[in-house]
UniProtKB/TrEMBL annotation:
Belongs to the class-III pyridoxal-phosphate-dependent aminotransferase family. SUPFAM superfamilies: PLP-dependent transferases. The keyword Amino-acid biosynthesis applies. GO terms for molecular function: identical protein binding; ornithine aminotransferase activity; pyridoxal phosphate binding. This is ornithine aminotransferase. PANTHER family: AMINOTRANSFERASE CLASS III, ORNITHINE AMINOTRANSFERASE, MITOCHONDRIAL. Its EC number is 2.6.1.13. It comes from the Bacteria. GO terms for biological process: L-proline biosynthetic process. Its cofactor is pyridoxal 5'-phosphate.
Length: 405
């Protein structure tokens, strides 16, 4: 044990609850160390991480190449602000643009900021390039979306828990059923700036839209001069077996929002990447962030890009994802009502007659697997992409036991 004060799990939890705002409902486990796909609690018990920090830990805990990049940067330079150039920023932007096949990069910190930035850019583009009348721009979004927690973003959330009592809300958003291309078409008008959606909806329970949906959205956007914005903050960066979840559809977005795994689970790094003529509407002073693109973020981000360039993680997600989905399919009808997903990412709907998501999460914790429900009856499974095949088996066996226990 290397922590200063040895304490009981219950003491840590009691302190969290006494002093920390209650905006989360964590599982009762207190983690002290992490390595690869494994974490260790304050009592030395080990657990397989089957959540990966909501995909922020795609490369596992403390990937050596990422930790090395962070250490080296910490020993040289941490922050300059964008008032000056630094020797990491341009390289990060260039390398990220290169690996994503895009033309320009706008760096921010959190996912919500990337989405906010994309909304601002799309509106500005609508007024200055498309010719939409001042303050009339509309953005089409999907039911059950999750794009973050700012006041503008929760303005178009239809989840009452995320939305209620945060008004007055930001106008200018039109909600259509997720996966319904006809509804997107019907919602497009002369003032439409953009369609903003997740290629696969994460928080909603890993919802994959019908085949052909994204091709139709792309065609509609081209036809009506509307920007297509893909929020790949959770679905992107190798999770589904490709760099972007949209790549499975052979469709390119005009803008992508990236976050979570972009910071390697070490620092918050987010970005909007895409067309230079769209991001080019931003001129000096019109948008910014003190930490956005700071040297530590860029150094870690460059190391993340380096890992993505090898293709190793995409290949693992494909191969191991097939295995995971094969194993999960065996549970259908045995306590599992439905399984969705792609790559190393699955939404598992628990049979309403079996257990709640929370009960299953607690059972799994006792069996050394950390998972978290999203909504009442859905488990979201997203192990680090460094996980091994037999570790997946171990976790799925535990899940099978949880459902029949
Ligand atoms: C997590 C998430 C966000 C918000 O990211 P934060 O870093 O928590 O602000 C936005 N969009 C999607 C799709 C996400 O999964």
């Amino acid at each position: 044990m290397d922590q200063g004060e040895l304490q009981e799990t219950a003491e840590y939890i009691a302190r969290d609850e006494r002093w920390g705002a209650h905006n989360y409902h964590p599982l009762p486990v207190v983690i002290a160390r992490g390595e690869g796909a494994w974490v260790t609690d304050v009592d030395g018990r080990r657990y397989l991480d089957f959540l990966s920090g909501y995909s922020a830990l795609n490369f596992g805990h403390r990937h050596p190449a990422l930790v090395r990049a962070a250490h080296e940067q910490l020993d040289r330079l941490t922050l300059t602000s964008r008032a000056f150039h630094n020797d990491q920023f341009g390289l990060f932007c260039e390398e990220l643009a290169h690996v994503t096949g895009t033309e320009m990069v706008l760096t921010m910190n959190t996912g919500a900021e990337a989405v906010e930035s994309a909304i601002k850019v799309a509106r500005k583009w609508a007024y200055e390039v498309k010719g939409v009348q001042t303050d009339a721009a509309e953005i089409i979004v999907a039911t059950n979306n999750f794009h973050g927690r700012t006041t503008t973003i929760v303005s178009f959330s239809d989840d009452p828990v995320a939305h209620d009592n945060y008004g007055p809300f930001t106008p200018g958003f039109i909600t259509v059923p997720y996966g319904d291309a006809d509804a997107v078409e019907a919602a497009i008008g002369p003032n439409t700036a953009a369609v903003l959606m997740e290629p696969i909806q994460g928080e909603a329970g890993v919802i994959v839209p019908p085949a052909g949906f994204w091709r139709s959205v792309r065609d509609l956007c081209d036809e009506h001069n509307v920007l297509m914005i893909a929020d790949e903050i959770q679905s992107g960066l190798a999770r589904t077996g490709k760099l972007f979840a949209l790549d499975h559809e052979d469709v390119r977005a005009d803008l992508y929002t990236l976050g979570k795994a972009l910071g390697g689970g070490i620092v918050p790094v987010s970005a909007v990447v895409g067309r230079a003529d769209v991001l080019g509407v931003l001129k000096p002073g019109q948008h910014g962030s003190t930490f956005g693109g700071y040297p530590v973020a860029c150094a870690v981000g460059r190391a993340v890009v380096g890992l993505l360039e090898t293709g190793e993680f995409q290949a693992r997600a494909t191969e191991l994802g097939e295995h995971l989905h094969g194993r999960l399919a065996e549970l259908e009808g045995k306590g599992v009502a439905a399984v969705r997903g792609r790559g190393l990412w699955a939404g598992v709907d628990i049979d309403p007659l079996a257990k709640t998501g929370r009960e299953v999460s607690m059972f799994l914790r006792d069996r050394g697997v950390l998972c978290k429900e999203t909504h009442e009856r859905t488990l979201r499974i997203a192990p680090p992409l460094v996980i091994e095949r037999d570790e997946i088996d171990q976790a799925v066996d535990a899940l099978a036991d949880a459902l029949t226990a």
